Amino acid sequence: MTGKMDCYGLTHTGPQQLPNQDQFLIADLEKSMRIHLSSLSLDNHSRLFGNSQAKLLMVADGTGNSETGDLASRLATDSITRYFLNNMPWFLQWDEDSDDDMCDALINAFEQCQKRMETDVQEHPERAGMGASLTLAYIVWPQLYVVHTGHTRCFLYRQSNLHQLTRDHSLAERLVTNGTLEEDEVPEIWQNLLLNSIGGDGDSVLNPDICKMQIQMGDALLLCTDGLTKHVPDSVISEILGQDTMADDTCVRLLSEVEAHEGTENATVVVARFLDIGDQDVTMIDSLDVETGNTQPPPKAKKMKTQPKPIAGKHNG
User: Fold this and answer.
1) Fewest Cβ atoms closer than 10 Å to its Cβ: which of 54, 73, 123, 257?
2) Can you give the pLDDT at residue 312?
3) pLDDT at residue 292, rounded to an integer
4) pLDDT tens per residue, range 144-160
5) SS3 letters for 139-171?
6) 183-191 long-range contacts, CB within 8 A, separation 24+
7) Has this prediction a pTM greater than 0.70?
8) pLDDT of 10-31, one tens digit each?
9) What is the chain's Cα-based Rg?
10) Which is nearest to 233 in space by CA: 170, 156, 312?
11) What φ, ψ does residue 102 adopt, rounded to 5°?
């Protein structure tokens, strides 16, 4: 049995062509070696590459005005990328003994991002108030880590059910969770009042949630900004993820639904599908091992149950 991972991402500015404060990133992490001199029959200064070690998926949504929001999301995405490149021990294969260190390193990536944004605001006071929601998925097959702050989201589609792996760090979410208001009673503006996010004003609270579990063949992951979830019902998202389409077509269909539901803002999606393809020859998709396991609760922050309660099943419309 052969497994493949199919990834794609798209962003859309919305019908009013607003400045795009969303960012996304899909990266393949692999070892490399630059040869300077050798007696072997290798060209000097050539670079050798090893097999893929991990995948990094990320979406960010900037807050602030149109200029600082765009800058904040770009800065957050760039900061995390540089942290993975220079500090993250991603070249190590996953095992249980290194699991706590991996979680600590992922949380530290967000903390370093926070420090960089604070430094930027100190150097440019006119950027005060900028910040970003950020959701990151790090896959070392078969292990999945999701780190999150703000109101960007990560969903898992498994066996015809949609599971939300993150919770919004917004005033709206808190009021609904503690029973103060029903979901349909919360003013929309409160969805944008973030209680936990990356920010550069020095007063921002940063306490990232981390969730870990094991991926199975047939699963699909969706990372998205609130431009999707504000306008497209979970049942429709579940229906689209349940269709037998490649990741690029899935992204197109999701953003088409934003337009169909008259979405008014930026919307960004990243989709990863874990495919059991047997002996088929699939190009432009990275190979994966196929050993699977059960889901596990995270070691810290918000714990995910072994069998998460689905928020939407397969929709037959």
Assistant:
1) 123
2) 53
3) 28
4) 999 999 999 999 999 99
5) EECCEEEEEEECCCEEEEEECCEEEECCCCCEH
6) 188/230, 191/151, 191/226, 191/230
7) yes
8) 998 876 667 789 999 999 888 7
9) 20
10) 312
11) -65, -45
